[in-house]
Specification:
With about 290 residues, the protein is an alpha/beta fold. Helices cover about 35% and strands about 15% of the residues. α3 runs parallel beside α4 and α5 packs across α9.
Length: about 290
């Protein structure tokens, strides 16, 4: 059977996608492929100048809007100025950065995909795709009582793993809640494997040197890394609650396939606790 590639993305004419963090890397690769297949694509970026530069390299109906996921006021303003659309791709993120706080006091890696997704949910016609990582397995069990690293010594790689675990817990719990209400909207997750992008350049000098070597030897490019996200976002056979990644050894590189995730990511009780804590912290609610 032939391997699925960007050339296999179905015609997306008449469909609108919002892709966060789409000014570079995996987000830009996904947005470019969607636009080339006829989609209307909104690049939701903190830096609109970089977003505009990326959009200038893309053919098709592409626009740029400011969205700072590290600022809940920006998230609310973005949602308030958005009309109905088909697919939200939660791609934006940072990797293993030193301890920093968002405008609202959150640890920077934990992000606010939760708030954005829930505020946009009434407008979404088809699906929410949340980009996680194999690094979710580094997160162990998520510490719901200290999401913002106020009681623990901060460890940036462990914090990154926790943030990617939170993404999966959120994606799976969102699907359970959508299904319980009879919604036709699907919540799906994906991961890119090991892809050479700008994300690694923010991981600190020593880690950057190691990753630069790994990028040359092991990694696939952003176009290949975006394939699981594109499959999850466009293919009609994708079901809510699925997780898509590369089919190669250790899921590092390859073509899209359904993949598994850690036992912690499937812990429904923890997901409910995390959801409640996220509602408390962000003010966003389901339904």
């Amino acid at each position: 059977m032939a391997k699925w590639t960007i050339a296999d993305v179905p015609d997306q004419t008449g469909r609108t996608f919002i892709v966060t963090g789409a000014n570079s890397g995996l987000g830009a690769a996904a947005a470019r492929a969607l636009a080339e297949r006829g989609a209307t694509v909104v690049l939701a970026c903190r830096n609109v100048e970089k977003g505009a530069a990326a959009a200038a390299t893309m053919a098709g109906d592409v626009s740029v809007r400011r969205l700072d996921l590290a600022d809940l006021a920006s998230v609310r303003a973005f949602a308030a100025d958005t009309g109905p659309f088909d697919v939200l791709v939660n791609n934006a993120g940072v990797m293993a950065v030193p301890l920093a706080r968002t405008v609202d006091g959150f640890e920077s890696q934990i992000g606010t995909n939760f708030a954005l997704s829930l505020q946009l949910l009434p407008l979404i016609g088809d699906r929410v795709v949340t980009v996680s990582s194999k690094a979710h397995r580094w997160g162990g069990r998520i510490n719901v009582d200290d999401l913002n690293w106020q009681r623990r010594a901060y460890r940036k790689w462990f914090a990154y793993g926790q943030s990617k675990l939170a993404d999966l817990l959120f994606a799976y719990e969102l699907q359970r809640r959508l299904q319980a209400t009879g919604s036709s909207v699907r919540s799906v997750a994906a991961h890119p494997g090991y892809s050479a992008t700008e994300l690694q350049q923010r991981a600190g000098s020593r880690a950057h040197r190691l990753m630069s070597l790994g990028n040359r030897i092991l990694a696939q490019n952003a176009d290949r890394g975006a394939l699981p996200t594109l499959y999850a976002a466009t293919m009609p056979d994708v079901l809510g609650g699925e997780y898509w990644g590369p089919d190669g050894p250790l899921e590092l590189v390859g073509h899209p396939t359904r993949v598994g995730s850690s036992r912690s990511s499937k812990d429904g009780r923890t997901a409910v606790r995390l959801w409640g804590r996220a509602e408390e912290l962000t003010g966003a609610t389901f339904g």
